[in-house]
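Chapter summary example.
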Amino acid sequence: MSSVVRLLSSMVGEVCSIIEINNERRSKLRRGLQFIKREMEQVVSLMEDKNKECRGAVQETRIQQLQEFVYDFEDFVETLRDPPPYSKLLLVAMKMDPRTEQLKSIEHFKETISSLGQYFLKQSTESSQGQDPDQGAMSDPDEDADEEQLQSIGGARSEIVELLKPSPGEEQKLRVISIVGCRGVGKTALARAVRNKYSSSDEFDCVAWVIASGCNKKKALLDKILESVLEDLARRAPDAENAPKEKSEGASTTKPNLQDILSQKRCLVFVDDVQQALVWKDTVDACRKNGSRSRIVVTTSVHSVATACSSGSYVYRMQFLSDDDSKSLFWRKVYGSETADPPDALVTGSESIFSKCGGLPRALTSVAKHLNMKGDTLESTHCIDVGQYLGKDYLLGTNNAESVFKEMRRTLMHCYDSLPDYDHRSCMLYLGIFPKGHQIKSKSLVRRLVAEGLVVDAASKCFEELIDRCIVEPVQICNNSVVAKRCQVHGVMLEYIVHKSVAKNVVTLIKGHEPVLKAASSEARTRRLSVQSSIKGRFDELDKHKAALRSLTMFKTEPTDLKMCKMLRILDLEGCHGVNQEGFLEGLSELLLLKYLNLRNTRINKLPTKVKKLQRLETLDIRDTDVKILPLDVIMLPKLAYLFGKFQLPEVPTKGKEAEKFYEFLKETSSLHTLAGFVTNKRQSPEHVILLARNLKKVKVWCNDTPADAPTWLLPDHPELASSSAAASDGPSARSQDYNCPWNKTEERLNNMDYIKLLKMRVTPLESVSITSSTICNEFLCSLEGPCTISSIKLRGILNCLPHSNKLRELGRIKKMQLFSTGLTIEDLSVLQFLRGLEYLKLVEHTDRFCDGALVVEKNGFESLKSLCIDAPKVPEMQFKEGSMRSLTSLYLLCPNSQKPSGVIDGISHLAKLSEVILHSSMQRAWEAVAKGHPNRPCVKRQPEPTANT
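The structure predicted for these 950 residues follows.
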């Protein structure tokens, strides 16, 4: 928020600088703007002092009021930028001088910002008096110990019991098992079921239970564990030698030491709801790890905490219930019996309940208990009613729903309230834009958040936090990044987010024939609109709100006239039909404030030249469209940073003022960061952009390898090219160069190798290169020399060979490599183990030849690799020698035709940090034993089946 306020303050300064002050009203307007600027700067200062963590309903309401003020004022400032369409004197003569209304608006803004500033000032002065009075203490609700639901989680308890057992030949060592999953999924119930198994047995000397909620101070959790352990030891043997001994009477007593107890006794300690890794670190550091047969079971809803507690291994990830298990649990709770057999009418009426609960046990049991209270009067209409209003009335509690939903509400509220700050909560509520089952592209979401100014500085980190806390579920993880490439929000969580975001006026929804979901206040302006499965004409119902609309997202529907939406910053039309109709794209060019425009999969075939009017556009996505040639005007958009598609770059003039203007723009003005990507051939070449665009970091290129289309490139040591490169380096002083650009002279082009040399000539080197072309891929690999500035390489095409091991050792900065359909065998690819800095390697091949030979990883091979993904018909033979792959945590084997794993993988136990193995969904269960035989007992998951939304 403070970043947005700073941005507006700078806008005010800019507008004030251009306002004339030669009459009274102009002076008043200028003074009013300056006053508002000072007040906003004061608010920023107060927010930074007090509001690093925004807590409390009243305080959050004030923040939202400030946000609405910022939006209104930003829109007002934008109107001041544009001169009136008619003469000022004419407007005055007609008594239509706009300055009169502007002054009224200024006075209103002054009153609003002053009142908000007074609130933050009062809050800052009262901060030392204790907790914000409107802030209720929010601790993690204790999960229901309902073991009935565990009957539906096949083998969950037995898997935890298996993890508690010592591995064959394993030395005595304290082991920590983490149970991680979203809130309400049954982590505590599972842990209690395991505790009940051992509470009366002699297998452990003591079984202790501790709730970690509220243990935020150093060693507070440690003291709790010690107290619980001593209590259970005393219960089991109050007068026997098992009880901890204290010094004799008359001597000073000493409190027993937890690490000694855990080492001398075999204890089983359950620590429920650990939310901070630091709290756990203080605890585990005080325990002796070696020489102990004790076990600790931790439950948490934070992935990073689970990893920290269990050092990346011995992590059990809770899964949602399957459809059959969900129905079985639900109807048992509705009827209170094991032999529940609902009538067909109730089965049909409850479909939306199962859809929205999404296999979450706590949600299912809450709804079932509510319906159970109906007794014999239960009808299908009751089920339909709960399914329809589950989010608004029951989860948000707007209709004083029964206490059976209290725990479910507290669970969801805690997910929201426990987030670190307002930025994270804004990011969470923003997810209400997307419909159920929609796979959210992580990078696109981050670009949207930045373009909207919701999360200016740390959008990616905010989204990572939501994944880490199990609020967002990853759908596709196949890289070494924390953020999955695609994610989605679970059913009941999405239901809560949608209605909370609507209530807070973050999002307005149009969905089919359903009533428009919008904020209850009649004064609330619609800022973000999501149109889901809408019929034509529903959008027009919001005509009076279109003027304030900042974000419009439409899902597979036909857009209508947007001429009233002048304040749009975000326009996402991916998959929409009718975009190519006459005049529509030209109309988009009038939305001058657009920063993000997504036209992916809209079947458009060209972009109008009027697109040059979008001077603030930062992201343009035209992937999966029929746009073949990109207008030069697009490349020359000054703010454009991310350009996606598959197109040819336009022909560029070689002489004259137009050429001079273009090359000067690339060198000094262009913001282009990602060009992904362009098609190159003999006549259309992108070297002018690649060489001169200073901010360019990521390039993706396609090339047909037929002789007629293969591009040829000018040697970089050509004297004319060298002088132009010098001009790019020397800046304005070199502008006197003749812009007769030699690399547009096709008769002087020689070969593809010159393109590779051209990449090396860039003043600011590239960081990521993706190439689809056998010819260029081979030459690119041959050209690599250390030290290499490129950190990510993706190649698709037949390769003759890979560089020699000595050469690969010099390429230490390459962190990510993906190779597709290279025609090489796994034995050929084993040379990649000499890439010392490589952290992620993905190999995709679809021929059986790939499995010829074996991947033998020697000691110190792949020393930095964290993630290895093999996508092939079957798993090739692999041998991991001791001391190899010392950093590997994730192994992906996406090989559908693999038979039993016997003899295929040798030495997997040498992968010291392996924590997860991901298998293809069709691979046999025998493959899971490969992972379970590892000392770390890594988590075994199966790649989810692809869905329609990709």
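To summarize the output: Residues 89-95, 127-145, 478-482, 707-751 have pLDDT under 50 and may be disordered.
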